[in-house]
Amino acid sequence: MTDAITIFDTTLRDGEQSPGCSMNTQEKLQVAEALVELGVDVIEAGFPIASPGDFEAVQRIAQRFGDRTTICGLARCRTEDIDRAWEALKDAANVRIHIFLATSAIHREFKLKMGKEEIVRRAIEGVKRGKEYCDDIEFSPEDAARTELDFLCEVVEKAIDAGATTVNIPDTVGYATPAQYRKVFEHLRANVPNIGKAVLSTHCHNDLGLAVANSLAAVEGGARQIECTINGLGERAGNAALEEIVMALRTRADYYGVETKINTPRLYPTSHLVSGITGMKVQRNKAIVGQNAFAHEAGIHQHGMLQERTTYEIMRPEDVGYVGNNLVLGKHSGRHAFRDRIKQLNLSIDEDTFARVFDDFISLADKKKEVYDSDIVALVENRIGETSDRWQIVGFHTSAGTGLVPTATVQLKDDKGEVHCDAATGDGPIDAVFNTLERIIGIEARLDDFQVRSVSRGKDALGEVTVAISALGRTYHGKGVSTDIIEAGCRAYLKALNAAEADRQANRPAQPAVVPQGV
Questions:
Q1: Least crowded by CB within 10 Å, which of 23, 221, 333, 509?
Q2: Residues ≥6 apart with Cβ < 8 Å to 418
Q3: Which domains does the chain have, with CATH numbers?
Q4: Where do the H-state alpha helices sit in 132-177?
């Protein structure tokens, strides 16, 4: 067996199925680029037949990144699904079609209403259909963890005979336990005659909080591909978290004896990018990428750390690209020093974005005494993708107080350079700003979520606002940063409205077609 683990990222497919985490095509391209830089081996870009938006995203990701990594499209074991997946992937050099069909008794009886013979026949036909298009075919017996072992062996053997080069054994509903799940892989390796012709893969859900543990147990049982998502995004309780799996394999290489190609200093920046785009905040005590992951509060811990870091740290913060509250720059720092710090923080931006971020940095340094690494990261994240937005803030003014009607006046510049100005009232200054933005852009929205956090420390800290809105039948997210929370809220709400405006301009349907999202 090889000691190399293939990392199969499904953030853009299974991760996007998290309620409220849908991404538009431009956002998916941003995440895909980050995944390529992270070094993932396979990117499952979407479910092409699910909707026109999914098809477009898979197609554009394949066209842009298919020469740098393998791009995968999901398909049910149906001819129309497989054909549609190939249509989206065909322009790329490195592609995979991922075909799935449920095999457990409960799925056979209540969902598919098929017997075992019909399941086997369809699996063979589906894999053969995919094989007509490309050599790299993955087959998943959905709900494999609850499938009878003798039948699972039969399906796996037939799928490999039909041409499957990867066979995934998904714990679709997060029901497995580590010891039991490992035995499934060991059983397949011992009882499927042609098992050596395919790579065994694991895909775990986190319903019992065991997704990462089960994935690692599968590696012990012989799996050499792990399917996972950034921050553990996914349906219900989520999927196995990529960052946790990768660092577990790296930190405990003495035990697992395997390795990945992941560029681990990109883990923290990628986590923050996905969090910002989806609006799903990372909990403070989240392993590897949480705000407290490398914090030491207890005195005895701090004493040990001062003597020798390894007394209480099994990983170095820099190994995962962790950004803390390091004080690095001031208002007298020049462009060269700022550019160097951007590189040290593993942030990749073009020249136009760099110029905007540097201007933001100078403005921020004039407002607060201390600028931290976390401030710089927030400024960069705030500007990524902004050049494609139709509306930009020129200025705003609010008035509020006891006995006064909160009022906001906002000036926006459109993509033609014309300045638009309007005013509105609200329950408070932020509500008034939001109402004014809606009046100018002409989109009515409902605020579903509003969160504020301090990016760094101090009364003059940079504040970050994230919002989720419902408009045009969809959910949109936005994030804004400023030392002024009202301005940060204004930028966040405008970001979300700009995303809605892009859909309106493109005449995208209000809701994508609903297709069962398996595996």
A1: 509
A2: none
A3: 6-278 (3.20.20.70), 299-383 (1.10.238), 389-505 (3.30.160.270)
A4: 149-162
Q: Name the more confident of 298 and 413.
A: 413
Q: How, if at all, do strands 199-204 and 225-228 pair?
A: parallel
Rounded distance between C-alpha atoms, residue 188 and residue 346, angstroms: 41
Percent helix, strand, coil in the chain, to 5, is 45, 20, 35
- Rounded Cα–Cα distance for residues 393 and 414 (Å): 9
Q: Which of 207, 277, 261 is nearest to 238 (CA)?
A: 207
Q: Write out the DSSP string of 263-329.
A: -GGGHHHHHHHHHHHH--PPPTT-TTTSTTTT---SHHHHHHHHH-GGGT-SS-GGGGT-----EEE
Residues 6+ apart with CB under 8 A from 297: none
The pLDDT, as a whole number, for residue 298 is 45
Q: CA 104, CA 190: separation in Å to the nearest integer?
A: 21
Examine the pLDDT at 449 and tell me if it is beyond 80.
Answer: yes
Q: Which helix (H) or strand (E) holds 137?
A: strand 137-142
pLDDT greater than 60 at residue 458: yes
Query: Kindly report the CA angle at 324 between 455 and 375, in degrees rounded to 5?
Result: 35
Place of tokens 């959910």: 475
Parallel/antiparallel/unpaired status of strands 137-142 and 371-372: unpaired
CA 359 vs. chain centroid, Å, equals 29
Over the stretch 23-33, which tens digit does the pLDDT of each residue have?
889 889 999 99
Tokens representing 343 are 């590189």
373/370 Cα distance (integer angstroms):
10
In this predicted structure, what is the pLDDT of residue 513? 47
